[in-house]
């Protein structure tokens, strides 16, 4: 019944274990040529290990998380660990629901098993045409450190997020927080930093006139400037490329072309990230349009606030 030469003592030990139907099934799985676990590990070595672990787990049921962590210290490769987790879940399934601490332990083992299965699939799966594997978020974030501007970082994150969102469901479940969500959080963080930098009090040196420093109006921010000018251009039915609008706004505001471009491309994105601030921005610019008697623009802003 053995697949290697055991000593007489080892044969007797194995035969004793095989009196148990559960261990018979393990032995068959590890020695049957048609089994996916054939020759995965020596049957006697595995059964000894398994028996020792189940005894320990039974004796310390009140420490389920410790048992799950301690199990990972066993000297096995990933596929052997996967098989061990499978056998443990089958072994304890008859006690499911009868022992809360054991249920916690089995849940932890199931999570470890699922993580290994994802790793196996990830090794075999090719997402990109160049043959590269899907990146983890920590790898994506590390690469952004090599990029020089926030604009480049945001573009890269958007590309990776799009690749991720177009991937299969099991990759999306690879981590507790989906990679796409993590990319989105990082994108929003970079945009917010850009806004804060742009909205700081800035000085403009007028070299053509008196070289005096002109400070921007206390109500002026990047968001408000771009929104106000956009409403004006819409009211005038201006039809032109985004780049032309950016050049015009760069000409009449103290903000840099890059920050203006980012805001123009995401004109109303602030309503999702921080609606209270977005509402305040629209109320401020609406007040100035009202003072100018531009009733149509004021009405348009009110409608936008009602929709959102």
Q: What is the terminal separation in angstroms?
A: 73 Å
Shape: elongated
Strand content: under 5%
Total domains: 3
Instruction: Determine the mean pLDDT.
Output: 78
Order of strands in the sheet with most strands: 1-2
Total helices: the number is 16
Element order, helices and strands?
HHHHHHHHHHEEHHHHHH
Structural class: mainly alpha
Brief overview:
Helices cover 66% and strands 2% of the residues.
Q: In words, what does this structure look like?
A:
- The protein has about 300 residues and is mainly alpha-helical.
- It has helices spanning about 10-15, 20-30, 45-60, 65-70, 80-90, 100-125, 135-145, 150-165, 170, 180-200, 220-235, 240-250, 255-265, 270-275, 275-290, 295-305, and strands at about 205, 215.
- It has a two-stranded antiparallel sheet.
- Strand 1 (about 205) and strand 2 (about 215) form a beta hairpin.
- Helix 5 packs antiparallel against helix 6 (about 100-125) and helix 11 packs across helix 15 (about 275-290).
- It is elongated and about 100 Å long.
